[in-house]
Design a protein that fits this description.
Layout: E1 8-14, H1 22-30, E2 33-39, H2 47-50, E3 55-58, H3 73-86, E4 90-94, H4 96-104, E5 109-120, E6 122-123, H5 125-128, E7 141-150, E8 157-161, E9 169-172, E10 176-179, H6 190-196, H7 198-204, H8 208-236
Parallel strand pairs: 1-2, 1-3, 3-4, 4-10
Antiparallel strand pairs: 5-7, 6-8, 8-9, 9-10
Helix pairs in contact: 1-8, 3-4
Pfam family, one: GATase
Protein name: Glutamine amidotransferase domain-containing protein
Length: about 240
């Protein structure tokens, strides 16, 4: 039984196996949620609309929202997310998930400045007053792993930026949270990222040993702060 007195379910859209719910999933399960996982491009996502869960969690992946000619199922995923948003459902998007929410909200998504590795974000005043304030416990350090960016959707509130990428996190009301970065990653899972993204790391000239060493320094504290942030957001959203 969930903390609000009834069974809850979260639908998860996953794009690659190693970018899984991580600490978000841990927090959700601790709060009584069961997770129903859909593999994008494989599973029928229309179930998400026909049988909506209490929360939709859209995770990351190494493709671009605008690559629908190569990955034709992307347009259908954007439509599913758009229907969820229009219905007022609760949604969390991480990295590609945040970009998909932006696209489903009518905003532009496009190639931007590549950011890979551990680095701080700068919260806006709204961000400091949001559940993301828990990331201050880790000195606002997060794991970045993206090359695309997006315009801020109409009606959205910017929560965080970096010098290179202004739109790092945003909220739409109390029911939609979108993060360009990855506070959900458990430190012990970083090796799967280094393996899965080996080609991207090589093209970017980034030594996996650098990320591995930095993960040992900050990964656990960021994951703990991320768990607090997600728990606070779920509390505010009534989940």
């Amino acid at each position: 039984m969930s903390q609000i007195g009834r069974p809850l379910r979260t639908d998860v859209i996953q794009h690659v196996a190693f970018e899984h719910p991580g600490v978000i999933g841990d927090v959700l399960q601790a709060r009584g949620h069961t997770l129903r996982v859909f593999q994008a491009g494989v599973d029928d996502l229309s179930t998400i609309v026909r049988d909506p869960a209490d929360l939709l969690l859209v995770l990351g992946g190494p493709i671009g929202v605008y690559e629908s000619e190569v990955y034709p199922w992307l347009d259908g995923e954007v439509d599913i997310i758009g229907q969820r948003l229009r219905a007022g459902g609760a949604v969390i998007g991480v990295c590609l998930g945040a970009q998909l929410i932006a696209r489903a909200s009518g905003a532009r998504v496009y190639p931007g400045t590549r950011e890979i590795g551990w680095a701080p974000i700068t919260p806006t005043e709204a961000g400091k007053d949001s559940p993301l304030a828990s990331l201050a416990e880790a000195d606002w350090q997060v794991l970045h792993w993206h090359g695309d960016t997006f315009d801020l959707p109409e009606g959205a509130t910017l929560l965080a930026s970096t010098d290179a990428v202004k739109h790092q996190a945003y909220a739409i009301g109390e029911r939609v949270l979108a993060l360009q970065f990855h506070p959900e990653v458990r430190a012990g899972d970083i090796e799967t990222w280094l393996i899965g993204h080996t080609v991207e790391l090589g093209k970017a000239g980034i030594d996996p040993r650098t990320i591995r060493a930095r993960t040992q320094e900050v990964g656990a504290s960021v994951a703990a702060a991320g768990a607090q942030a997600f728990a606070r957001w779920l509390e505010r959203a009534g989940l």
